[in-house]
Amino acid sequence: MTDEQNLKHKELDGRKIAAELHITTQAEVEVLTQAGWAPRLVAVLIGDVAAVEIYVRNQRRTAERLGIAFEERHFPADITEPELLAAVQAMNADPRVTGIIVQRPVPPQINVKRLQGTIHPLKDVEGLHPASIGNIVYNELDLGPCTAMASVHMLKTTGLALSGLEVVVVGHSEIVGKPIAFLLMAEGATVTVCHHMTRNLAVHCRQADAVFVAVGRPGLVTGNMIKPGAAVIDIGINRVENPDGTARTVGDCEFESCREIAGWITPVPGGVGPVTVAMLMHNTVTGAKRQKEFYGNAFTAVSWTTSPESLEGSSQT
């Protein structure tokens, strides 16, 4: 094996890993559909959709390929928060909708935390409802924040035993860093969480068997900060300008120097991103399964083509 082949061998191919996840998801979609609980994912878009167009297009393409119905619901940029929350409550009550995802960013008059908290936990496919994140603390790991779950799944593909593994998580956001720490602790790992107030970040990183980085700072972690053979999961997505004026997408790690030292590393792009979309689909199926279990067969006779008028008075909440 040449040096270049050896370096490529270290890279965790997010597209390949996502494809493997899709196989299981598609099989579960078929089972749910046959049982009368066909998953239907609704994307909530507020205002200018150009900023999220590529994400929505990828979500739609992936969902439809797996047999998941995908619907976009557009709301004006000047919608008031009470109006938007009422619309979400209506989706909560609609048995034809099994999953809801809010496309960010949202207009300044909308409190995104309040909006996320309005989505019924059984339809929270992003795993961002406080109940969904809280469940991770109680070792309920089948549904959580998509990026956090994708990142931990990528570490599992290395074959490293998580029990007793020394892990450093750089970044402590509510939707990525902290959930990653709780997911890893549930697997028996020993976790250190670092952030902008951490002293001697390099010292912490060099002691770790695996390093997760999610802070939005390109080149923050370099090869001399990595323990030889460690797994590096780079979650950052940053646009940087080349000397010739063109732009490229990079992570939070200095890829080339880290790849020389690491045992495994995720590229950016093509690493955590595709697996995050796969986890969104996994969560969509998990939400539908939970609703089927919770509500039994109360709505199995309802067709996705049933008119809204005929569903008046029906509610899942």
Describe the overall structure:
This protein is an alpha/beta fold and 317 residues long. It has 11 helices and 10 strands. The chain has helices at 3-10, 14-34, 53-65, 81-93, 112-118, 130-137, 146-156, 177-186, 201-206, 255-261, 272-295, and strands at 40-46, 69-75, 99-102, 166-170, 190-194, 210-213, 231-234, 238-241, 247-250, 264-265. The strands form 3 sheets. A 5-stranded parallel sheet has the order 5-4-6-7-10, with helices on both faces. A hairpin with a 5-residue loop joins β8 (238-241) and β9. The longest helix is centred in the C-terminal third of the chain and has 24 residues, at 272-295. The chain starts with a helix and ends in a 22-residue tail after the last helix.
Write the layout of secondary structure elements.
Layout: H1 3-10, H2 14-34, E1 40-46, H3 53-65, E2 69-75, H4 81-93, E3 99-102, H5 112-118, H6 130-137, H7 146-156, E4 166-170, H8 177-186, E5 190-194, H9 201-206, E6 210-213, E7 231-234, E8 238-241, E9 247-250, H10 255-261, E10 264-265, H11 272-295
Parallel strand pairs: 1-2, 1-3, 4-5, 4-6, 6-7, 7-10
Antiparallel strand pairs: 8-9
